[in-house]
Write a structure and sequence with these properties.
The protein is an alpha+beta fold. It folds into 2 domains: 111 residues, Phosphorylase Kinase, domain 1 (2-Layer Sandwich); 222 residues, Aminoglycoside phosphotransferase (APH), C-terminal lobe (Aminoglycoside 3'-phosphotransferase, Chain: A, domain 2, Alpha-Beta Complex). The protein contains 11 helices and 10 strands. The strands form 3 sheets. Strands 1-2-3-4-6-5 form a 6-stranded antiparallel β-sheet, with helices on both faces. It is globular.
């Protein structure tokens, strides 16, 4: 996140800056100075703002506008994880303050450390264009950071109670099916067929680790001068204890390749380029670095896509009900059935 990633706060996503300044005064270094607020333009769910007190910068995170699915966009969970995880996983920003007083900005929020670097989204950064292997370096760093996360001893940092590993995969499948039915704007048979396939092909748990639950390229940050150096991993509000391969499946479901269907490349929030590692190579590197058995990776990839269907439905229903005016979400209605069909194709592949 650099200065170029911030915009003036969107009209419908503003809050009372004076109330926030009054609340934070004395709780953070330099918080007695004049507060200025800008918004990070990326992301499709939680709202993220840059807070500046003179030269001191912080980040505020809050849930999206409108009704929320139970247990989603959990700011207290994200605060609790980040307040401990940074001690053993330096890519996690430190969290400083949590507030559940709705009178301050209208929603629970927390304040965390500001990291500086580059978040790679749809367009490949020009600053890395002269480094021919930059996409490969990013791909490798992304996998290596995931392996490091999954090796963290969560007991030693006080995070053994943030999730229930037993039955994790079944709860994921059932939970996203319920969220789909709560948010769907139309009936799509492929989604129910995906649920049936996932239920029928549920593997044994591959192990237990900290799980990020939304691991993807644009939830990470690399150094401005080195695309192979990861400097941060963001968006921990769904983190829990569970099957580590679910994170790899999530990454695969977001990953884009030149051979993917046009709709998928268009919807992807990463550059589509032959210079990034393929999904197959990502899986091989994870297996080599972690020593984990990845023979059931198709299940986790399909689960990741099933989850994306649910996320897209939750976002789109907020858009058509007027709870968000972000025009980026207008195409989600067309994308959802295509995504479900694409996922069904993976279940039928040799």
């Amino acid at each position: 996140m650099t200065v170029h990633d911030t915009i003036a706060v969107r009209q419908d996503e503003r809050f009372n800056k004076d109330k926030l300044q009054e609340y934070l005064s004395g709780r953070l270094p330099q918080s007695d100075r004049l507060l200025t607020v800008r918004q990070f333009a990326g992301g499709a769910a939680n709202l993220t703002y840059q807070l500046s007190f003179g030269s001191h910068e912080y980040v505020l995170r809050r849930p999206p506008l409108g009704p929320l699915a139970p247990s989603s966009h959990d700011m207290f969970r994200e605060y609790s994880v980040l307040s401990m995880l940074h001690k053993k996983f330096p890519l996690a920003p430190e969290a400083y303050v949590y507030c559940d007083d709705l009178n301050i900005i209208g929603a629970p929020f927390f304040i965390m450390e500001r990291r500086h670097g580059t978040v790679v989204r749809k367009n490949f950064p020009k600053k890395f264009s002269k480094i021919s292997h930059a996409p490969k370096l990013m791909s490798e760093a992304l996998i290596d950071a995931l392996v490091d996360l999954h090796s963290v001893d969560f007991d030693k940092i006080g995070l053994s109670t943030i999730g229930k590993p037993q039955g994790f995969l079944k709860r994921q499948v059932d939970g996203w099916h319920k969220r789909w039915h709560a948010a769907k704007h139309e009936e799509i048979q492929d989604v129910d067929d995906l649920y049936t396939w996932l239920t029928d092909n549920l593997p044994s748990n591959s192990g237990t680790s900290l799980v990020h639950s939304d691991y993807k390229l644009d939830n990470t940050m690399v150094a401005d001068d080195n695309p192979g150096e990861m400097v941060a991993v963001f968006d921990w509000d769904m983190s829990t204890l569970g099957d580590p391969l679910s994170d790899l499946g999530t990454l695969l479901s977001y990953w884009s390749e030149p051979a993917d269907p046009p709709f998928f490349q268009q919807a992807s929030m990463m550059p589509t380029s032959k210079h990034f590692l393929t999904r197959e190579n990502l899986v091989h590197r994870y297996a080599d670095k972690s020593g984990r058995d990845v023979s059931n990776i198709r299940f986790y990839h399909v689960l990741g896509l099933f989850r994306l269907v649910g996320i897209a439905a939750q976002i789109y229903i907020r858009f058509i009900q007027g709870q968000t005016r972000d025009k980026r979400f207008s195409v989600f209605g067309e994308m959802i059935p295509l995504l479900a069909r694409y996922a069904m194709g993976l279940t039928q592949a040799p």
